[in-house]
Every structure is written in C-alpha cells, then in structure tokens.
Amino acid sequence: MTSRMRTGRPYPIGPQADARGANFALFSAHAEKVELCLFDEHGRRELERIALPENTEGIWHGYLPGAYPGLLYGYRVHGPYAPQEGHRFNPQKLLIDPYARELDGPFHIGDLHFGYRIGSPRGDLAIDRRDNARVMPKCRLVDESFSWGDDRPLRHPLRDTVIYEMHVGGFTRMHPEIPDHLRGSFAALREPAAIDHLRRLGVTAVEFLPVHAWVDDRHLVERNLRNYWGYNSIGFFAPDPRHVGASSHAELKHTVAALHAVGIEVILDVVYNHTAEGNELGPTLCFRGIDNASYYWQSPESARHCMDFTGCGNSLRLTHPRVLQMVVDSLRYWAEIVHVDGFRFDLASTLARGPAGFDSNAPFLDVLAQDPVLAQVKLIAEPWDVGEGGYRVGGFPPGWSEWNDRYRDTMRRYWRGDGGIIGEVAGRFAASADIYRHDQRRPSASVNYITAHDGFTLQDLVSYNDKHNEANGEDNKDGTNDNAAWNCGVEGPTDDEAVIRLRQQQRRNLLATLLLSQGVPMILAGDEIANGQGGNNNAYCQDNETGWIDWSGRNNQGQDLTDFVARLIALRRDCGLSHEHFLAGTVCSPSGRKDIAWFRADGQEMTEDDWHFPDARFLAVAVDGATPTLILLNAHFEPLTATIPSVAGIAVWRIEINTAEANGTGTGTRTPGEALDVPARALAMLLGTPGPASG
Q: Can the peptide bond before residue 53 be classed as cis, meaning omega within 30 degrees of 0?
C-alpha cells in the first residue's frame, strides 16, 4: 500500500472501500489539518500518518490506493485548543471516525482519553499532550457486501404490530438452551431456542436496546459496574463489539435476516440526543476532538460549557446541517444496508430542538417525513427530554408513534386499586384519542406499555412498593420514586401463597389490559416468564444476574404466563381487536353495533355522571371487530355481579379469559341480561356469537 494519497471525493462522508482502495471523508468546519492514522493488524502500532489532502466546504477527504477491508485506522485532528471559544482540538488524541462501520474493541475509559489534564488547577483549560492511541479502539475498514437472498422489508402495518423490547445480551446470557460461547451476542438470537420463544409468543417486532458502540461511564467503572443498557453511544454506524463475534458488520445482518424469515421485524433503540463524551469535563473520543463547536449545543453564555437537555452532559446539535446529515445517514445505513424495520428514538424531544426550544417543524422531523426510505419505516419517539418544555407526549407529527407514559401510569394506578379514574382508563384503553387524535394521526400513534427497560419489571411492579437500587451504588437515590406499584401486601419475596396468587393475577390483569387495548402494545422481555430484578427499577448498570433474564421462571409460574401472553396476542389478532381509526361510539354498518360502547355493572351504557363517580373501579367495554368482544374490568378488592349488556346482533357471549384462574382461561357462556360474577381484581374477556338478540 502506498502512502501517497489522492484527492478523493467529499461524498459520501465516511469510509468507502472499492476494489482498488478506499475513500475517506470527515466533516470538520474548524479544523486546520486532518490526519488519517494507520495501524498494524492488532491495532497496537501506529504505522503511518497521512494528511487528508483536500477540504471541500468543511469536508476533509482523500483516496488511499491499496487500502483493504480489515485495515485499522483513526484520525488526529489539528486546530485550536480554546475551550472558551468552544474549540477542543488535540491531535495527541486519536479519534474514531463518526462513520466507522466497525471498531476493533470496546472502550476502556481512562485518563488518557481526556483532552485536558485531569487534576490540573486550570481544569479543562489545560491541554493534555499525552498520546492515547495505544488504548483507543481503532476503526476497521469493512467490505459491506452481504448476500441477503430474498430478504426484504416486512412492512407489518402498525395497527397489527406487537413489540417485544429486549436487551440483546440480557435476553440470552442465562438461557440454558443456548451455547455458552454464543450467549449475549447477536448470534445467540438466531438459535432455535430464541427464535422459537418469539414465534410462540406471536410478537411481530423485537425492539433492541441500543446496539450502537457505547462507552462505560467512568463513575461506573470506578464502582466495578458497566453501562449495561448502552444509552451512551459514540459510534452511530458501528454495532458495539460486545454483541458481536469476528465481524460485527455481518453478525447483525445475519440476525436481522433470521428474524425476518419468521416474520419478525427489527426495531433499533437509537440514541442521537447525546454522546458518550459528556459535558465539558468528559473525554475526547470523537466529535469533541473533530469539531466540538459544530457537533454540540453550547451555552449562549459561555461556549466553554455544553447545553444539556438530556441529563447526560451534552446534546447533539441537529440544527447544524452536517450533524443532521450524519444522523440521517446513520438511519439510512441501518434501514438500507442492515435492513432494520424501524427506530425508537431515545429522548426524541432533543432531536427536534431549535434555538427557541422544541419545534414540531424542526429540520430533523421534516427531513424524515420527506425521505423516501425513512418515511416508510417505523418511527417511535420517546417524546420527552429533561430540558425546559421537553415533555411532548402527543406533540410529534403524523408518521410518528410515541411511547405513551400516560397509558402506563393510568393502568398501573387502576389495577393498584385507585378509585375515580375510570374515565382516564377508558381514554387510555381506546388509544388516548384526547392526546393523539389530531393532524390525521391514528391509534397506532400510541405505543402502550406497562413496563419497559426503564423501571420495574412486571414481576417487581406487583412485588414492591418502593425501589431497591442499592446495588447501583448511589444510595438508592437513582431511579424514579413514582412507580404506581403495589406489592400485594408484602414487600419483596414471600412464601405466603395468597400473596403469590394475587401477584400472579395482577400480572395477568396488566398484560391482558395491555394486549386488549387499542394502540400498539409493547411487552418488556422477561415479563412473560415472571422475570424480576429484585426491586431495582434502574438496572442500567447491572450487567449481571440482576439485569439478565432468568429463564428458570419458565419451570413454574412462568410457563402458564407465557402461554397466557401468547393466547392474548393470538386473540388480539384473530378477533380483529386493533382498529385503524379511533373508535368513537358510532354505529357500524351492517352489524348495527357501535364500534365501541361502555357499560356499568348493571349492563346499562355509561352516562356522564357515571364517569365521575369517585369510587368507581368497574368498567365494561364492548369492541366491535372480526369477532365482537366484551371486556369486564374489576379493580375493586371485592367481587361483584355484572349483568351482560345487550349488544346488537349478539345472542351468546363465550367467556374466553378470566384472570382469576391460574392459567387465565375462562369457561362457560352468558346471554344478554344474564349475570356474571366477576372476582375481585380480575378481568374477563367474552367473545360474541351472532344471533337474533338486539341492542
């Protein structure tokens, strides 16, 4: 390979290999020189530094003849070290390429990664001139060719989507049927035991917690902990080395293809709101050393300091056209080259911020709406951040779905036994039309969930009143205190059979409510086998048995629960419970039934006064569909007798689900006007059989 570099081209940004070499392009508006650094095959010895010969409108570029797949490289970027002006160039710090497709190993944070001299009286104003290349991960040039066969986007309609949120590593770390050497990797998800479990449940999409290369926070490393969840991204095109084998480029693609082959879509949880470089006292790993002033929001009072809308120290500035381009290029890469089917955007409000705050017409939102590739994939917002005005539930434009935390909180409170909220329960059950029915948005805008990675698992939600995060090393101060949880009478593990049965019933209640509601349901991996975390509601740093799914639960209570979840998903699908448009209580033709109707315990339709009864804890709802469905919810601590309402064209109702039973199965039939005993804290689902009865 010759060190003589040609001019090359500024587009596409990033590394681009061909049969004769590779083009390298890096954006930096304020750099004075950019050097491409080449390393030996082990990444230990720096072989050569080559200045990129050309700068076209802020993009430094050059073509290196003889460059080959597998080549390890990094960048050194020269420019002023002037923190007061927002510049933190330090060519003694090797930097990863923001567009790198692979890294040769994970980051191990240490003093050498910081651009300033830690411990200096001048703080971040004192430059650190020690070279960090020896301990810095290197970028790997890759051959991106891959044989996809007939794989193509599945394009499941959102209305039919059931999401299963999982951590790639934690899902398989303790799975007894997966070989030890594969556990925790993308490859493990292709094993029959993993695929069969997902198929058995009937979920249509898996949502992976972040897979982009990330960094373990220094404060965690000092406590012998790790950033297990991975919400600390540094490479937006490279899978984290901890999830892959010899080739991260191919490993994830094989897994996506395997899931597609059984009808399951792949959604990536992506973190574009901030990076692992933290605030102005954080390390210099990539963007900070390439062009700090362009990539990050800076305080208007002092360019030395980062603006932080995320609680993580910095915020990416997507109002800059090149930063926006990088994020969109990343999304297109995963959608086009890796064939993923959608994205869930962490703290998505930050991505739509402008100088005046959140902007529903922000460049990021407009670009995605117009992009011919990204406009067709699933886009899910976590619609908040920690900045002023950052809570934007319902504020994203058409084409977006959103995590609906108001659904989560309402259903938790209802099944905990809170009274006087049945109006809120009905609204959330019907896809929160009060939040989302605007600008032609549909019920699929609401992603409903009871639990997610962030918070209690379902098992812990019914086993603890309070969080127990002591193992995180923050004196139990981390994690939310507002859990709307109920321990069923005993805090934590118990041998009390009555408490155990009640907890099992509460899990069935919550899962049934979730999977029978309008909107898009999301299940937390492990909830279907009663997986717990010992009351830790912020297990982000628990890369151990606390954070991993314990599959031993399948051998007892978890087995019936898995069957129950699978049955609910099948009923949701087969009964046509999920509707394309918001239900409004209008009469459908030709059935003569209302699309949705709400009833009191006496079988009469709800009146305005009924919705405001302060102690109400019972609600019945009839939903029209391929099979008419009647759902009775009783969150009271006492049983009650309900009268089966008269619904147009339905002669007999068959009891399909009864959460008070150990396996959740109901038995028997009822005709309109007959009584049905609904146990305390229970849900019943009945399926209608057409006949001469009239409404």
A: no
Q: Which amino acid, one-letter code, is at 132?
A: N
CB 203 within 8 Å of CB 569: yes
Q: What is the CATH number of domain 14-140?
A: 2.60.40.10
Instruction: Tell me the residue type at 183.
Output: R
- Shortest CA distance to 570 belongs to which of 162, 156, 166? 162
d(CA 597, CA 603): 11
**Phi–psi pair at 528, nearest 5 degrees:** -75, -5
Fold of 596-690: Immunoglobulin-like (2.60.40)
Whether the domain at 160-270+323-574 and the domain at 596-690 fall into the same CATH topology: no
Catalytic-role residue among 46, 191, 240, 382: 382
Per-residue three-class SS string for 36-57 = EEEECCCCCCEEEEEECCEEEC
* 180 is an active site residue: no
pTM of the model as a whole:
0.97
Token code pair at residue 81:
């070290």
Tokens 């923190």 found at = 83
Please state the three-class secondary structure of 367-429 as a single string. Answer: HHHHCCCHHHCEEEECCCCCCCCCCCCCCCCCCCEEECHHHHHHHHHHHHCCCCCHHHHHHHH
609 catalytically annotated: no
Regions of the chain short of the pLDDT cut 50:
1-2, 693-695
The pLDDT of residue 2: 47
Q: To 5 degrees, how large is the angle CA 181–CA 208–CA 475?
A: 90
Q: Specify the residue for token string 């490859």.
A: 187
CATH architecture, domain 160-270+323-574: Alpha-Beta Barrel (3.20)
- The CA distance from 313 to 232, in Å, is 11
Distance CA 471, CA 604 (A): 52
> What residue spans define the domains of the chain?
14-140, 160-270+323-574, 596-690
User: How do residues 507-523 score in pLDDT, each as one tens digit?
Assistant: 999 999 999 999 999 99
Nearest-5° Cα angle at 518, 160 to 512: 95
Q: Of the listed 104, 291, 341, 346, which one is catalytic?
A: 346
